[in-house]
Every structure is written in C-alpha cells, then in structure tokens.
Amino acid sequence: MDSAAKDEMQPELSPGPEWPEQERAEQLARGAALKWASGIFYRPEQLARLGQYRSREVQRTCSLEARLKSVVQSYLEGVQTGVWQLARAIEAVQGTREALSQARGLLQGMSQALRTLEPLRERVAQYKQLQALSHLLPRLRAVPAAVAHTQTLIDAQQFLEAYVSLRELEQLREDMWAPLGGLELPVFQGLDLLFEALGQAVEAAAGAAGKLAREDPALLVAAVRVAEVETGRTTPLGQVPRDWRQRCLRALQEGLEQTHFGSPLLPAPGALPGWLEALRVALPVELATAEALVAPCCPPQYNVVQLWAHTLHSGLRRSLQHLLAGPELEAADAFALLHWALHVYLGQEMMGSLELGPEADVSQLEPLLTLENIEQLEATFVANVQASVSQWLQNALDGEVAEWGREQGPNTDPSGSYYSPMPAIVLQILEENIRVASLVSESLQQRVHGMALSELGIFLRSFSDALIRFSRDHLRGKAMAPHYVPYLLAALNHQSALSSSVSVLQLDGAPSGALAPVEAALDKLQRRICRLVLEALQAELQPLFADLPSRQWLSSPELLESVCERTGRFCRDFGRVRNPTVQLLLAEAERAVVLQYLRALMQGRLVCRGADERTQAAERLRHDAAQLQQLFLGLGLQENAQCAPVLLALRELLNLRDPALLGLEVAGLQQQFPDVSEDHVSALLGLRGDLSREQQLVALSSLQAALPPSPRASRRALFSLVPAPAPAPASCLPSGSCARALLLSE
What we know:
The protein is mainly alpha-helical. Helix content is 69%, strand content 0%. Helix 9 (244-261) crosses helix 11, helix 14 (422-438) packs antiparallel against helix 15 (442-475) and helix 21 (611-635) packs antiparallel against helix 22 (645-655). The longest helix has 92 residues, at 50-141.
C-alpha cells in the first residue's frame, strides 16, 4: 500500500480530552522533582554544579520527547492499517451476501422443479413393485395353500416338515420386503400366528417329555431339534428373536411339576404318609426315566438329569411349604414328614441312590424343610403326643383306681406279689415315644424325653392325689373299700416297679441328674403310701394302747399280745410287697408300734408305788421288747433295723435301784437316742414314783453335760415324734426349761 493511499484512508484526528489522571501525574512529577532538587542542592557547594545538572536534564527531556514521538507515530500507523483492513472486509462481506442471495433464488427454482417430478418418482416406485410382484406372483399364489398345509402339519405333530414350510414362507416374505419397500402383504399376516402355533406345539411336546420318551421319542427329538434350530437362527433386523430353547426348558419343568405336584388339594389328615410313600417310589423312577430315555433325546447342554432333579426338588419344596402353611398337622403326619424329609428323601432309597448319577445330587440345594419348619413340626408333634400320652396315662390311672373298690383283692404274679400291668404300660408308653422320636433327630428325642418326664411327674402326682382321695373316702365311710390295705400295698409295688424301671427313660449321654425330679416324685409317693398304711395300722392299734401302761399291763401280757396279734394280722400281706420296699415298710410299721408304745408311756397314766412295781414294770418292758422283736423277726424285718431295743433302754431307768446313778443312765439314753428331750426324760422318771425334785433335777442336768452321741446311736427319728406332757403356762419357755421350771416350782 503506498503512502498516498494510506494518507487518504487516514482519518482526521481531533484533539481529545486530556487523560483523567494527567493532572495528578503532573503533580506527582513536580513533587518528585522538587524533592530531588532540594536533596541535591541542599548544600551550598552543590550550587556550582547547577549548570551541569540543567544541561543533563535538558538532554534527558529531549530524549524522552523523541521516544514518545516515535511510540505515538508507530501507534498511529497501526491504527491506520487496521482501519484500511476493516474497509476491505466490509467490501468482501457485501460481495458474499450478494452471491448467497443469488444461490437462494436458484435453489427455490430447483425445488419447484422437483415437485413437478414427484409423481414421476412415485410412478417409477410403483412400476418397480409391480415388476417384482409379476416375477413372484406364482409363488405368492401358492402362499395360502402353503399356510393351510403348514397348519395341517402342526396339527399332525410333524414338527420338522412344518418348520421347513414356515421357514420357506418366511424367506418369501423377506424376499418381498425390500422390493415392496417394507410393505406387508395381507397374504403374510397370519405367518406370525402360525409360528406361535408351532412354538406352542413344540412347548406342549416338551411338557410331556417323560411320556413321549417312553411312547414316541421321535416326536420329542423333532420338537427339541426345531427349538434348537430356531434358537440358533439369526433373525432379520427388526424382528424379535424366538428363544424356543428356553420355552422348551420351562415346559419341561412345568410339565414335570404338574405331573407330581399339580394338584392344589392337600393330603387329607392321615393321608400324608401314603402321599410321601408314593413320592418315594415315583421320584426315583422319574429320575431313572430322565437319565435313560429323556436325556438321549435332548442336547447335552440341557443337563436333563440335573434339570429333572432340581425341578422335582423345588416343586416338592413348594408343595411342603404350602402344606405347612395350611392347617396344623396331626402327630402321625408331622412325624412322617420329619422322618421322610430328614432321612428318607436324601437316603439311598431316593435321591441318594447309587443307581443315580452325580447329576441327580440335590444335597447342595436348599433343604426341603427350613429350620423354622423343623421347629414347627417338632413342636406340633410334641404337643400332639403330649396330649395323647396324657390321655393314655389318665386312662391307665382311671382303670387302676376303678379296681380299688371291687370285692376282690389285687391281682398277684406267680411269685405271690401284688401285680398290676399299669407301671409297665406307663413306662412302655413313654419309652416307645422316646424311641420313635429318636428315629427323627436328637433334638426331637430330647424334646419328647423332656415331655415324657414331665408327664410322668404329673402322673405320679395324680396317682398320689388319687390315693389320698381313696384313703379319705375309706376312713370317712363314704366309700368303704373291702381291701383297703392290700390295694395300698399294691400301690407300693407299683411305685417300686416304676422306681426300678424308670432308668429305661435315661438317654445315652444325658446328664446323670436328668431323672432326679422323677426319682424325687417316686420317693415322695413311696413315703405317702407308707404313711397311709401306717395310719391304718395306728387306727387298728390305738384302742389297744388306751390301757397301757396300767395295773393290768403290769400283771398280764395280754395287752401286748393283743397288739402283736393284730399287728401280725395287719402285716400279714406285707409279704406280697417286693423287696426292698417290704423291708422299709416293715421297719416303718415296727417304728409306728414302738412310737405308739412310747406315746402311751408318756401319758403318765401309771406311777409305780414301790420297788416291786418298778421291777415288775421293767420286766414288762423287757418282755414287750422281746415280744415285738420276735414278731417283726417273724415278719422278715432284720434285727438291726428295729426300734424295739429302746424299751430295753427305758427298762434300765425303771430297774435302777440307786437313784444317784440315774444321771449316768440318762446320759447313756441320750447317747443312744440323741433326739430324746428333757420333757421325755422327766415323764419317764415320773413313772418310777420314788424320786424327789432334787433327784430329778440332778438326773436332768446330766443331759446338759452328756457326751456327744455315740457313732452307733440311732439316726432315725423316735422321741422327736412322741409328744411329751408338759403342763405349763402359756408364756412357757422351751420344753427343756419348762420341765426344770416345773420341778423347781414344786
């Protein structure tokens, strides 16, 4: 660009306003200059160099002005060049705008021409379609007949031929698709329905695979081949794939479940064991059929045996869950289901059979019964069994109680002991239920064992209560039992039989104290029966002891002979009680007689008038002790278990002639019988009739200074069961103190 052109394009620059900060900058410059000058010329000797400073500043000012002019000139030239370039750009834009306007006009003219050609294009497309139809018209005319023939083939279950025909029709439709521009001819509208009909027929054949494998395996093979070919075929763009393989697999599963678990009706109460037994037979047969017949008809990837096993397992599991969600099962059904699910199903009789391959293994699948199901079934079984056991035991007890009032005595066994089948029935019922529960699981066995012990405890309490009612009604005369005591003795034998056999209820590995509550209940029952027998004995003997001691007693043995005679007659049936209970019963009977004897002595009915009567009373005590010992030895009681020797110890108190030695005898009595009290000794000393108050106090004081009881001393309660007469005020001290206080008051 020449300078003249630039000058022409250069705009005229008018002086603009001063910089907004020019004035402030000038002030700052002046201030800085003054500060500098004042610093330089502060001293007088510096004024001589003022000319040099002036010339130097003039040169600097000129240099700055020249530089400023150069910068401003360069800036003005750049602005001039930019303005020229903008002018050229404006001219170019205007030219482009004019060219675009011309192109728009040309395009509008072409679109109008195209609209005039549109009918021609449609005519061409129609011509092409008609041309394609004219070539395919013979084949299109055969489509309706082919469709009808294919439907006939499907109905005749000729799956391969039907599938080939359908594929030909579908290929024809695809061939017509492009020439017709995606137009769907009415003749092909039923083709998809025909494919669906074939799919349903293949699915139905797969659902009956087990039956077809036995009767018509070729049909099953054809159905599976059609499903596999259709699944592996590449579908045209835009068509949904037909996954007939999955449809076949689902049909196989659904058909199998429908065969064995399709009925919505649950087994009726009591019919569950039969239903489970039918499954036990049918499922292994079904798996064997799948392995031998169905698997060869299907591709290996179908895993027919595994599919069969898993399908049967899941269907059975759903059926059982549905069964457990319904009404509560009975005991027999709950037991059958537990035993079948836990032992039979996975055992060698069914899914664990050695004849089945590893594909049929279902042990790793979800179990048929969950822990909650097992808990529910065990609770149901135990509750129902408990109700039945309770009813059985009550019936056994009612039958036993009904015999107590009959005219005949208790039945006896060959050994002559009283016998009843009730203990054996009770233990057999409980033991059998525990044994049956052990066939299912250890947890169920423990539950039934706990229930059995609980019911046995309830039975023993009911048995004890029945005996009490029986005794009360007999003694009150409401229902007199002709054989009251024999049936009590028979009850003792029942208790003995239960005690000796209750160990059969002990589980292996159970703690040794598991039977402790039952054993305690049996001991309590034994004590109660013994007490009832002894109460009857006391009622027999009480009138006879009314005259003992007395003057007649001193002179004649008839009173005790009557006691021995009646006691012997009462205890005659004790021999029908089994050992060792008979020894316990005889010992308690002998102690009851001795206690009755001691009670009579403590009543203070007799006071000896002299030494002769004391000797006579002592001799009577010796004779009575010997007679009682002889009586119970004859009945079978061992001598070391008898209490009659206490009469010999009392004899020494009466037979002693020197009252000064009474303290030794009293101390010896306490050593032999630690439960003797001062009241008892005081009452016995009162029989002598020759002791002063001081002598009795001295004798009683020996009880305080007595030595500890002898190791051979009697540990059985004797004197503590004999009430001693102790007339005293209501505010009396304890019995020993009362006796001493009474003597002192006299």
